[in-house]
Amino acid sequence: MNFYEASRFQYAASRLLVKLSQFRDSGRFGQKVTSQTNVGIVLTAQESGSFRINVDAPEQPAASDDANSFVTMSLGDLFSYVAERLIEKTDDEVLTNVLNAQPAIVDQWGRIPPGDGERLQEVIRALMNDPDLRATIFPESAAMIERRISELGRQESLDAKTAQVTKIDPVREQKLISMAAPLVTEMATAFRRSASTLTVKTAFAGRSANVFYLDQTMAEDIESTKVDQEITSILGNIIQYNKENGWGKVRVAIAKQPLSFSVPSDQKRALQSTLLDQMGRDQVYLQVYIVRDLAKEPVRLIIAGILPLPE
Questions:
Q1: How far apart are CA 264 and CA 270, in angstroms?
Q2: What does the pLDDT average to over 165-175?
Q3: Which three-class secondary structure state does DSSP give residue 211?
Q4: Sorting pLDDT into bands at 50, 70 and 90, what band is 285?
């Protein structure tokens, strides 16, 4: 079935059944289906505890210079591009502490020293490629590991498409983020009553990867924040930056406390040397998307570029 048509059917059918249920109970129904008016009509799992939605998109023409294609990328690659800009990245210090608490990890690699990004990346890559090893992780720590594995999957997906990603100019990037942000927020509504985790896996040209992971805590964060649609240029003082996954912290005038920021993996190559150089300076002129909470207060930043300091 066509995915869009099937999804529209599912959306319409679910709204119809909820409203019929409301009508059956009270003789009337609301115009909107909200968390309060939603009723307990559930999908039956196709297998115990798991729902799988497999979609297959048409392949692009083989010629890379085909005039009808703006970029030659799989939809999974584009999904990775969007997710890199919307999903908050993991903190290496927290992740290191999580891994150092896992007996199977310590037995094989020893304790990971604080700040050793290369060793941390080595362990994550091993977990990424070994499901049996991943199964030894304590359940309460699994979400943090899955988040980093998805970050690594997105990075590898976009690294393989560097030439195509560079075709997405800032104007198109801004339009993509404005379009995608509310839809990703809508995806997070599955966690209000039902879902505990969501994983998006891509498969293209013989390679597969986990590129998106949400748990209930992440979903709550997504639902309670909004990404600005416009880029903001702002002066800041970078106090921390991890070159492995592009996560850092910066002091800016719009917040009392330092804000975390993320650099999309496909932008690290272009921005990383400047970021590392600017860490020793009082100010850097950043182009950012500001992520705000429901009170419109800034909670984190997504770095889109670096400008020369204003005169």
A1: 11
A2: 90
A3: strand
A4: very high
The residue ranking higher by pLDDT, 276 or 233, is 233
Residue 260, amino acid: S
Residue identified by tokens 């997710």 is 83
303 phi/psi in degrees, rounded to 5 = -80, 125
Q: Grade residue 60 by pLDDT with cuts at 50, 70 and 90.
A: low
Interval 122-143 mean pLDDT: 91
Written as six digits, the tokens of 234 are 């702002």
- The pTM is what? 0.85
Q: Measured at the alpha carbon of residue 6, what is the angle toward residues 3 and 184, in degrees to the nearest 5?
A: 60
* Residue 54 per-residue DSSP state: -
Phi, psi of 89 (to 5 degrees): -90, 160
Residue 294 backbone phi and psi in degrees, to 5? -65, -25
pLDDT given for residue 276 in this prediction:
85
The CB density around residue 38, as the number of other CB atoms within 10 Å, is: 15
What pLDDT does residue 257 have? 94
Strand pairing partners for 198? 214
* Two tokens, residue 244: 């492995």
Q: Quick check: helix, strand or coil at residue 260?
A: strand
Q: Which domains does the chain have, with CATH numbers?
A: 1-40 (no CATH), 225-307 (2.40.50.140)
Please name the residue that has the structure tokens 């899955």: 146
Q: How far is CA 281 from CA 91, 254, 285, in A?
A: 23, 19, 11
One DSSP character per residue, 152-164 reads HHHHHHHHTTHHH
Q: Residue range 190-205: average pLDDT?
A: 84
140 vs 24, which has greater pLDDT? 140
How far apart CA 206 and CA 196 sit, in angstroms, is 29
Q: What are the b/e assignments for 127-163, b being 16+ CB within 10 Å?
A: bbeeeebbeebeeeeebbbbbbbbbbbbbbbbebbee
Q: What is the largest CA-CA distance in the chain?
A: 68
pLDDT at position 63 is 52
Q: What is the DSSP string of 149-196?
A: HHHHHHHHHHHTTHHHHTTS-HHHHHHHHHHHHHHHHHHGGGGTTT-S
